Amino acid sequence: MKDHNANGIQYLQEGKYEEALASFSKEIEENPDNAVAYVNFGNVLSAVGELDKAIQFFIRALEKDETIGTAHYGLGNVYFQLEKWEEAKHHFEQAMKKGVNDSDTFFMLGMTLLQFEQPKLALPYFQRAVELKPEDAEARFQYGLCLASQGLIKEAIVEFEQVVEADELHADAYYNLGVAYAYQENREKALENLDKALEVQDDHMLAAHAKKILTEN
Fold it and tell me: Which domains does the chain have, with CATH numbers?
């Protein structure tokens, strides 16, 4: 007997969306009460930008099994893309309550809280995302930004340094390192990092502006 779900997941990972939808459709046809298949179908729809349809499949998954946290995660993602922050926050929190406690969920809840301009509340979620997935440069970058926003400049520098170590083309991390070093009155280090930001992205206006201020003073 074919495992349509497993086939569908493989197709999804390969970016073969039509084949993935066909596999998950067969799974739903043969096992209409399999909530996971509805979540997977919703994930494909979300990946191809069919967000309203994706919502329907995640909701159907929850109708089949109200304990399925991945459906809440899927809904959170869709609502985030639709910029419906309250709904996104609710579903990411529900996903966590239902046991989806991976780095992506912590990261996305942190990103959602930033939309409410609450970096202090977002900070522990980014911290946890980084603990669970240390190689995630984007989560570490956001964690660094939150630390800096709370005046924890020394701690922020540590994170930004690790970001540029992992991703040498992260212009925004170089820029923020430059600003952080400027706060510490380390002009040499500040200019060095602002130059790197401009090397990576020559039209980085914030880095150019910060460099201008530093060189004029």
Answer: 1-100 (1.25.40.10)
